[in-house]
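Box 3.1 — From sequence to structure: Versicolorin B synthase
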Amino acid sequence: MYRPLFLAACLLGAGSSSPIHRLKRGTNILAEYDFIIAGGGTAGMVLANRLTEVPEFRVLVIEAGPEPTVVINYESPGGNQFLGGTAIDWNFYTTPQTHLDDRILFYRRGKAVGGSSTTNGLYYGRGTASVYDHWVELGNPGWGWDDLYPLAIKSTHFNPPIDDPDWDHSYTTWEPSAYSDGPLQIGYQGYVAPSCVGFIEACEIIDIPIVEELNAGNNTGVKQGTGNLDGRLRRSSAFDSYYQQAKSRPNLDVLHDSNVEKIVFDTTGKTPRATGLQFTDHLTGEFFVVSASKEVIISGGAFASPQLLIISGVGPQEPLDKFGIEPVKVNENVGQHLNDHHVFSVVALAQEDSTNSVMYANASTQEAAREQYYKDLTGHWTAPSGITNGFQRMSEQKLRDIGAGAVVDAGLLNQSHVEFLYEDAFYPGGPTFFGGGAVQTESQAYYRPKSSESYFSLTAQTCVALSRGNVTIKSTSMYDDPNINPNYYEHPADRAIGINAFKDLRKLLSHPKLQQFTIGPNNGEVLPGLENVPEDADDDTIFEFIKANTIPNWHASGTCQMLPEEDGGVVDPRLRVYGVDNLRVCDISIFPFLPDVNTVGPTYMVAEKCAEIFKEDWGSKSPTPAPAPAPAPGSGGSPPPSSQNPYPASSSSTPPSPSGTSYQNPTWEDIVAARQSDNP
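Predicted structure (token representation):
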């Protein structure tokens, strides 16, 4: 039986009295907070940290998942391959994808304090300045690169590579002024496979230059990839960084394992007003209503945020009518305009010592690598499957020649258009569903990996996907997964870019720097193989392979877009939900266009901006951030339209510090000693 609990007043939190709820799990929470955040994911934890810097702000975060520490592999680089389907994953599936022959795809999404930053592939990037300047052009003042870049600097701390003579530090360069002393840790992986270095050097064949920095406004080029890794090669998620820094503050309560079920509205006034949240404690089954004296903040991500809005009465007319939901605000844009990145790969058979995939061959090799990592921070478990990426920008003429002129027309010329990823494994190789409900595996009609063989994969992601999907509800319950339809390849430009990217993947594989590590004919290619896609294959044949092998890259966004309502928006530039008072959305769902990079870095930037907005609107200033360096070259903070990166490669692996001081790499002995002190 659900029952709201209203108990006696008690002095708690930031020196103020309020009624409390006593949870059977042994936790007390206030009956009223200044801000309540629905969702303790990546953006939610940033908000919780920054808002509670103001002692007068009382903040409650309600998160459906547990703390990520319930899963043993979540913090280690090598363990990131084994987080799908665990207790910290939502285990979503898409609807049948019309343009992928009705395939139903598994969709990873973090379900934990820290959200998808606890389960992602660890890559950290920020994207190209022009992407955010385009957001401004679409009607969002204050959201350009010059506004966001100082916040990215403020949020991050860079850890130089560990000084291990057995690890390859080629192309591990960085620009010190792009980082500061923020809570989020950025660094390089440990072990680097020889074929990974070969990938970097081979990118020249597809016009991707080697550069020194990708996080300062120009995301075109290739180098060793930066990851969310601390100085001891552990994952630095929003849980590990922002939450750990703030969790002891008396004005912050974080309630995990609790599902928000509905937004509570007061509809008696001229404009509906959000007054609180209704939720259930998963651990005890207790039902509660908690009030917000200032605002309710929705931070559930691209799927849960629109789902919660619709179930609460803010959304399109059709589902409100279908499920008998009383309308609070009809907005046809809620849950629409889903935008996502997707990937496919060409896979090569490789020499065993040239790749890391032998680690994944069987349970015994995995366990041995994991034990070595926890013993002395060495070995293959110090590397994720792949965070080394090359970003390609095409000219206007090239885009039009391949049939992707719509990218130019959409204003997306001056950014990267394709991301090429090196994967230290046979990828993709996980289970999925196909049409008809039969359980099959990716690429079933093609070559399947063998435990006795080693591989590397060259993967392509379209950075300017123009296809748009949607998220709709199945019922009035947040316990039912939403219908998720990314609608991959709906737009013909996505198809054109995918086909061209496949041709470039084969060019990469043919480069001597990669070819030297392969085994067998056709540059070692086993997927798709020339028997399936001949060298002279037409575009339709290539696309048949792409359709059978495309999977999500887990970057869904745009379902609560920050745009004028008449242009498809759900929130305004101050993140306020149209037509409702005291309700805002702060997460990846507000992105009007996807950045040309993996999305955790942009999500951190956007969340920092959200927190700044809240403090401004409620009369509090943020602590003064470190002085920001000059913006990336180019007018308005944007990079030049050419593929030239402002940080080209040089002979130095460590750029000089602008202050005149130098970074001191931790010694191997320091790192091992520190790790062993953590694990006595």
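Summary of the box: The radius of gyration is 24 Å.
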